[in-house]
């Protein structure tokens, strides 16, 4: 456990980087314990750490994704139904696209191939909400118990959400062009060189897409961590406030960011005494219910199904937020 703890601190949390940045801030004439110096320390350390981890993790996860093209994933799910199929779809969602918008084309392919609505929606919810990279990043900022808890609740939301939507029998609410979309049967394996090139391109594409959100998230985190008094934060989002979970969910919906951009904000909020469930609700709302992804989803489903999807996922997020606030002592 001592070796594991050292590796966790030095590799994931990058304690060496924190010390290096702190020394640099001091050399620059700022006190890391002051508001300004602390903000610079928080910003530089989190930005460098997140981008280093993000690049390595995206490359590694993308190599795994190269073995699971949409056609192979569809074949794995094909012919399956029931709770087991929903669980499998949610698990497969963890090794596929990193944001909800990039999950929509795969959702279209699954629907056109005739997969049950429950299965496709379990995948659609899980794909942006839970991925292997998020586990490592969460562990690097919080701890392994919180990281694994987030993954667990994300999978629960995906499985339960897909199951409920399936039982509503809203197949008629899928846009007509989706069912007529061509389905590829190609499942050609990539060569080793092609997989490496694919992983490299994914790093360039995803980092290029998310870097503004990471910078904004880290900037907000630095402001919350060093400039906003804890009393002000807890008065609005304190664990004892019943409205904190609904408010965090509501605030998260208009935003668009990958989980990577929400982590610094979540880190700062937890440090200010905000309940773990409230923070998880915010993160899940941003990744699963962002307004841009709902607008894109509206193009492929009709309003009744969109409302059902939004309502089911929102209900799951609220339930999990309240539950984790009640049990946060187990994780923090």
Architecture overview:
- Its main location: membrane.
- Keywords: Cell membrane, Membrane, Transmembrane, Transmembrane helix.
- With 332 residues, the chain is mostly helical.
- It has one domain.
- The chain is 75% helix and 0% strand.
- It is globular.
- The model has no long low-confidence stretch (mean pLDDT 81).
Shape: globular
Number of strands: 0
**Rg to the nearest angstrom?**
20 Å
Average pLDDT over all residues: 81
Q: How far apart are the first and last residues' alpha carbons, in Å?
A: 19 Å
Keywords: Cell membrane, Membrane, Transmembrane, Transmembrane helix
Family: Belongs to the UPF0718 family.
Transmembrane segments: 42-68, 148-170, 210-228, 274-297, 304-327
Protein name: Permease
Main attributes of the structure:
single chain; mainly alpha; 75% helix
In brief, what are we looking at here?
This protein has 332 residues and is mainly α. Helix content is 75%, strand content 0%. The protein contains 17 helices and no strands.
Describe the protein's topology.
Layout: H1 2-12, H2 15-27, H3 35-65, H4 70-77, H5 83-93, H6 100-112, H7 117-129, H8 132-141, H9 144-167, H10 176-179, H11 192-226, H12 230-237, H13 244-252, H14 259-271, H15 276-288, H16 291-298, H17 303-327
Helix pairs in contact: 1-8, 2-3, 3-8, 3-11, 5-7, 5-9, 6-7, 7-9, 8-9, 8-14, 9-17, 11-14, 13-15, 14-15, 15-17
Protein name: Permease
Organism: Zavarzinia aquatilis
InterPro entries: DUF318, UPF0718_permease
